[in-house]
Amino acid sequence: MSLRRALLAMMLAAGCATPVLGAQPAVLNIAFSVMPPWKTIDAHGEAQGPYARILRQLAAQLGATPRFIPCSLSRCLQLMQLGEADVALGLAATPERVAYLDFIPPGLDEDSRIAFFMRSQDRRPLARYEDLAGLRIGVTHDRRYFARFDADTSLQKDVALHTAESMRKLVAGRVDVVIAPVLHGRSVLVAESLAQRVRQMPLQAKAYGGFIALSRLSPWGPYRAQVAMAITRMRAIGQLDPSRQMPHNQRCEQAMPDARTPGCGYDAAVLRP
After folding, report:
1. For 108-138, what is each residue's pLDDT tens digit?
2. Contact 198, 117 (CB under 8 A)
3. How far apart are the C-alpha atoms of 85 and 250, rounded to whole Å?
4. Up-side HSE of residue 181: CA atoms within 13 Å toward CB?
5. Where are the alpha helices (DSSP H) in 99-240?
């Protein structure tokens, strides 16, 4: 075989081995577990909050239609693991999740601290990690906080479905302390009218950080480079900052107060530290 023919055969073989991408998916399926103030559902059943805004902007960058799938944290993880949801935001990048989720940098510009909350009248100290020993700690099912705490089997952890449930257990004396992201914990206390009965303790820790996660079985998987490029563009123009205020939209402001104008949902207010 001539050298020319050999090179042609090699090129054809390489072409057959390289998958050809077809048209990218038209819909971006978003696993959306409620976690105020970042992720909420309004009275009309629409996804709201800073994370919903970020994910809508990601869909716009990709030229796709966002489809929010409200689900519990456990169900959202299952949907992502099966590839039935494409992306999620607000999941901790733990080693076991990296097996089926691609956490795409850059991360969000946000307050990623983890805090601890106790009853206002409880005078026990909680300034060092070691102070957790002997305390009954309210945690949320399937939520991850920070590596040392998650791996610590010596601690007494009381599991609830939601942080609000743990906070109610706290004021009822069924747990001694509740762990939660700082802004989320404060938001829950306000929503449950418990801010006067619970106080945030000095002990804090840094969480895993916020990344947009892409399911490894998602139809968007082959377009990972495009997704990563879109996220990088969003970071460059400040769209990955959950506290960023959206510009005023005259079309939305002129809408009737009781009307639902598509695309005019306002983000929930972000509580400041």
Report:
1. 866 678 999 999 999 999 999 999 999 999 9
2. yes
3. 34
4. 22
5. 147-151, 163-171, 182-191, 224-236
